[in-house]
Here is the input.
Amino acid sequence: MLALVTGASSGIGLQYATVLANDYHCDLLLVSNQKKEIVETAQQLSATYGVQATGLYADLSLTDAAEQLYDYCRTNNLEIDVLINNAGVFFFNEFVETAPARIELMLSLHVVTVTKMCRLFGEDMKRRGSGYILNMSSMSAWMTMPGINVYNATKAYILNFSRSLWYELMPYNVSVTAVCPGAVDTGLYGLNDRLRRVAVSLGVSMTPDRLARKALGKMFKRKKQTVPGAINHIFIPLIKHLPDRLVFTIMKRLKAFQH
Here is the structure.
């Protein structure tokens, strides 16, 4: 089984690649815009887990990135059994204060490239009658929150697109799983180590390894959607209906993260 993982040189993407190699013995095509790191990652995973792993540099924000990657696979006779659309970006900033290039980058990565990847590789999977696709959404898909409005909107797109595509492809034994995590234990939120440990112990935050294992488990069970972490199921109805006064208060707090 061959898995293609985007954004695989670090973070959640690296954990997806590691779990696929260790737990599922998948060969790997790893894609990242970090050229040196993705080659080293592929070499390390191959040596550690005895799988065939190839590291490929690609800028997935380019308009024709999906077509280039698909052509690479066809040229090298690579049939993708598992597609993990993980690559993405994140930032806090007021919309009208954000450089148009950053907005375009997020739209390209989260919407255009993900959609095209599903179209191209999904067609092959449908023809073969087998395949798995995992698309990274977020709990923020249900959230109205200034400062991350483009991020929220793109993740909502991924969620609804994936759920709808699941119905189209499941009759052909091809599943599409939207993964909607809450907070993940990375340095993104600016918390110190003690608070990060507390957040993980309370279940408010999840380690990348645990997220990857839970998400892939649901994907291989062909679930159309998963929200890892029991506590997050409690939060979803709440974040869908935040009072305006609370949103304005949160806006002030978010100023510290804007860059």
